[in-house]
Write a structure and sequence with these properties.
about 0% strand
Length: about 80
């Protein structure tokens, strides 16, 4: 199993590389934020789910909420 540092580095490099590729190849419509915007606009229920997932993940990673309120801890994912 890779260490957390390796996984974070892989995620950052992959996302930055993909975004740079989209910009350089003039495929701005394929930027991750724009794809997500289209999906959220098309599916209102998915919009709520996406925003809730982003919020829960951000709060978890930043360790802002106590474990008793952390969605990942409550679901036994973390």
């Amino acid at each position: 199993m890779p260490s957390g540092a390796v996984v974070w580095t892989s995620l950052i490099v992959s996302i930055a590389g993909y975004e740079a590729y989209c910009i350089r190849s003039e495929r701005q419509d394929e930027l991750l934020s724009r794809v997500l915007d289209r999906a959220r606009a098309k599916h209102p229920v998915a919009n709520v789910a996406v925003l809730a997932t982003i919020a829960a993940t951000s709060l978890h990673l930043a360790r802002i909420v106590p474990a008793r309120l952390d969605v990942f801890a409550l679901l036994h994912i973390a």
